[in-house]
Amino acid sequence: MIIPGIICGLAAAFAQCVSYLFSKKFIHKDGNSFALLAASHLIMGGFAAVCLGILLLENDLPPLKNYWLELLEVNGFYLFGQLSFFLAISKTEASRLAPLLGLKIIFIALMGVVFWGLHLSFWQWLAVILCFTGAAMSNWTGGSIPLTGIWWLLGAVTGYSLSDISIKQLISRIETVTGTGMLPVFTAAAVSYFLLGIFSLLVILVFRPVKLKQLKPALPFSCCWFGAMLFLFTCFALIGPLFGNIVQSSRGIIAVAIGAVIAGFGWSEHERKLPHALLARRIAAAFLITAAIILYAFV
User: Fold this and answer.
1) Using CA atoms, how far apart are residues 193 and 191, in angstroms rounded to an integer?
2) Band of the pLDDT at 138, cuts 50, 70, 90?
3) Beta carbons of 27 and 33 less than 8 angstroms apart
4) Cα separation of 118 and 221, whole Å?
5) What are the b/e assignments for 122-140, b being 16+ CB within 10 Å?
6) Residue scoring higher pLDDT (21 or 196)
7) DSSP letters of 198-251?
8) Phi, psi of 181 (to 5 degrees)
């Protein structure tokens, strides 16, 4: 199951990197972070409803009472992380922020030390230092990230990390009813995003943060992100959130490569074209964060 899990993790990382570009385009041209959050999750709620409909053709939906708390944790932490990332990406390029999401694994490790009595080896502490070094290198590759952007990035790392932990717990709870396999994975993803869609609909009806014309430009991000989440839920189910986040660290290298291609085509509204020296530093920072995560997990 390791190879399929790695493949799903890489597919999720690539789809997320593409979605970051669409999110930046929406925020800069079609609306703000709140509008994208509401519009995209309304659309993804529709995708999830279709998935649930297909699942319910041959299976019963597990009773909500068995996993409502895990579901609330997944969605609550995720919404906080997603909104924080949208606000962060409005301040700088996606290719700079994506490698820094590798700090999730460090956040999880430090949470373990403080709250769960986890003991880190010398090599794991070295990995923590290397990861922060890579983050610092990424921050100063072509001008530093504004302080507000750093705060929102830390919010995204916190929210995403806690949501990742909760995803595995949610799938495990559903497995107690359905048994193991892919059914609990797709059920967890579909129920999560269906409820997020209902929540978004209520927010739109009450606060009206989204106009009808904004749904179309939100569609590309929604398609990429929903596909990424299906792969991500599957990845976590197959190899767990720790190893899954290790594979996801490739997102930083992928994002830098995509950013360089985008800038090469002259699409400066998405990514600035960097001098070769700065681009090399950004790539080195992405590799350093990736190496630190691998060192933490395997040594």
Assistant:
1) 6
2) low
3) yes
4) 37
5) eebeebbebbeebbebbbe
6) 196
7) HHHHHHHHHH----GGGHHHHHHHHHHHHHHHHHHHHHHHHHHHHHHHHHHTHH
8) 120, -165
Give the contacts of 117 (CB within 8 A, at least 6 positions apart): none
Task: Give the mean pLDDT of the chain.
Answer: 85
C-alpha dihedral sign at 34, 37, 40, 42:
negative
Q: Is 252 in contact with 18 (CB distance < 8 Å)?
A: no
pLDDT band at 240 (very low <50, low <70, confident <90, very high): confident
pTM, rounded to two decimals: 0.86
In contact, 201 and 36? CB cutoff 8 Å: no
Residues 48-69 have pLDDT tens digits of 999 999 998 888 889 999 999 9
pLDDT the model gives residue 236: 87
- What would the two tokens of residue 65 be? 């009472």
Q: Which residue has the tokens 């691998």?
A: 294
For 237, the token pair is 């189910």
- As given in the structure block, the two tokens for residue 235 are 């990845």
Per the listing, tokens 């090399």 go with: 280
Full DSSP string of 90-153: TTS-HHHHHHHTTHHHHHHHHHHHHHS-----HHHHHHHHHHHHHHHHHHTSSSPPPHHHHHHH
Torsion-angle region of 179 (φ positive above 0: left; ψ -120 to 50: alpha; else: beta): left
Rounded to 10 degrees, the C-alpha dihedral 137/143/147/152 comes to: -70
In 3D space, the residue among 35, 92, 95, 72 whose CA is nearest the CA of residue 221 turns out to be: 35
Q: Which amino acid is at 76?
A: G
As a whole number of angstroms, the distance between CA 103 and CA 157 comes to 7
